Amino acid sequence: MDGPTSRILAEHTTLRVGGAADSWMIASSEADLCAAVRECDADGVPVLLLGGGSNLLVADDGFRGRVVQVATHGREVVEEGDDSVTLRLAAGEVWDDIVLWAVGHGWTGVEALSGIPGLVGATPLQNVGAYGQDVAQTVVSVRALDRTTGDVVELSETECGFGYRTSRFKTDPDRWVILGATMRLGTSGTGRIGYPELARELGAAVGAPAPVAAIRDAVLKLRGRKGMVLAADDHDTWSAGSFFTNPIVAPETAAELTADCPRYAAAEGVKLSAAWLIGHAGIEPGFGLRSDAPARISSRHTLALTNRGGATAEDLLELARAVRDRVRDTFGITLEPEPRLVNCAL
To answer: Within a 10 A sphere around the Cβ of 20, how many other Cβ atoms?
Structure first.
């Protein structure tokens, strides 16, 4: 475990904003990760767990505490049957490397989650999802440090409290440190197309079967066209991905919208398209608050807020507030941010 140092968070987040932390430690093993957090908790030092930095908006003032960077590694097959395989993954493994590994073996269940930046530990926290799949569909259990007791526990899929882009780890972020996940995947080599846009890309119907490699390739093409695959020379990818979650509203609220607004059944009501709401509130791709604004909506779609170079965290927050307020004023629906906001707020 590397000792405390000071680093600038902008150098470790995909939005490329954020000031310095008071101190910084790199945890390369589960034991080091637990020890670092327990030490901070015992000393009353605030902790910011850092993975791939792809879902963080950190204030220009930085973080008054210690960053603990998760750099743990480990992937293994713990059980393999005729129709499924069970994997144990460390939190610090790069998520898309795991997807590529799975697809290369013909394992099914995560192929539509290709190209998503970040580490394994963030995927159950956010219940990461895309193109008809989400992590909750494959998680068997999550291994975590419970900071209230100091114990390492194994939480079942049911105990994880998964919901749309959420989990008990997200709703109680100061309690849990995700150390790893156990996932069960199919072994048929054939996935199911679970999303209309993906179906169109593959020239097939929703629900139709397709090889997992073909699904991965199609998802990467779709994400690439939207600037959602990280590239250092592409400012559309200097983002935190989709900045706002798709809102879930009461059926009567959804009924007030025009028929062309995409909507999907959800356990809590009706899920609407945040991208549609933003676009129909008059905000187009490339929108900025000023002609020379360094923070702008992606030039390719309306869900990503991007740093065009030289943007500050406050520039991005100002843009996010303007988008949220325009949608609320137009439709009476308040969008909620998906990234974690550190030492700042909308």
So the answer is: 18
Provide the 8-state DSSP code for 245: P
Statement to judge: residues 241 and 257 lie in one domain: yes
Q: Which domain holds residue 163?
A: 75-225
Q: Is 239 a catalytic residue?
A: no
Domain termination residue (choose one: 54, 70, 86)? 70
Q: Which amino acid is at 263?
A: R
Annotated active-site residue in 165, 192, 200, 328: 165
Question: Which residue among the candidates 242, 296, 300, 324 is catalytic per the annotation?
Answer: 242
- Residue-wise pLDDT for 146-199, tens only, equals 999 999 999 999 999 999 889 999 999 999 999 999 999 999 999 999 999 999
Q: Quick check: 53 and 337 in contact, CB under 8 A?
A: no
Place of tokens 């327990």: 38
Is 242 marked active-site? yes
Helices 95-104 + 212-225 axis angle, to 10: 150
User: Quick one: 243 and 181 in the same domain?
Assistant: no
Catalytic: 165? yes
